[in-house]
Amino acid sequence: MNLALNMNQAAPSISTAELEIEIREIRKSYGETPILKGLNLEIPKGQAVALIGSNGSGKSTLLRCTTRLIEPDSGEVILHGQNITKLTGARLREARSKIGFVFQHHNLVPRLSVLSNVLHGALGRKPSARLWFQSLATNLDREEAMYCLERVGLAQFAARRVTQLSGGQSQRVAIARALMQRPTIIMADEPVASLDPQAGEEVMNLFFQLSRSENLTLLFCTHHLEHAVDYADRVVGLSKGTIQLDQESSSISVAELRGIYD
Amino acid sequence: MTEASYPLPNRFERPSVVSFALYIFIAWFVVVSFSGAGISLSNFIEGIPNMGTLLSEMFPPKMDRLGAIGKALLETFQMAIGGTILGVILSVPLGVFASRTQSPHVLVYRFTRLLISFFRSVPDLVWALFFVATVGLGPFAGTLALMIDTIGFCARFFAEAIEEINSGPQEALTAIGANRTSRLFCSVFPAAMPSFTNTAMYSLEKATRSSVVLGLVGAGGIGIELKVSMDMFRYAEASTIILFIFLLVVAVETLSTKIRQKLM
Ligand SMILES: Nc1ncnc2c1ncn2[C@@H]1O[C@H](COP(=O)(O)OP(=O)(O)O)[C@@H](O)[C@H]1O
Ligand SMILES: [Mg+2]
Question: Do B186 and A109 touch (CB under 8 A)?
Answer without folding.
Answer: yes
